[in-house]
Here is the input.
Amino acid sequence: MTSKQRAFLRSLANSQDPILHIGKEDISDTLLKQADDALTARELIKARVLETCAQTPKEAAITVAHRTKAEIVHVIGRTFVLYRKNLKEPKIKF
Here is the structure.
């Protein structure tokens, strides 16, 4: 992913609210299923890591991205954004 594509995705994610909240239960299979479904439907999702989570936001982003085969757009504060292209019905055009 180029820096221009990353900047474009960051601008799209700016208006979104976090749809995943990672808390004290850490990253469960249910949370990964929700992330996978959301990435398929939206391609771009925002997640928030609560203070009760044992992992840092960067560690959580790496784990979720790896397990869902997504790319990390950016991590800022306790929030991160993931992107995965939907090959059947792409919604975001570069």
Remarks:
- The chain has one domain: 3-83.
- The two ends are 11 Å apart (CA to CA).
- The domain at 3-83 is CATH 3.30.110.60 (Translation Initiation Factor IF3).
- Strands lie at 20-22, 44-49, 71-76, 79-83.
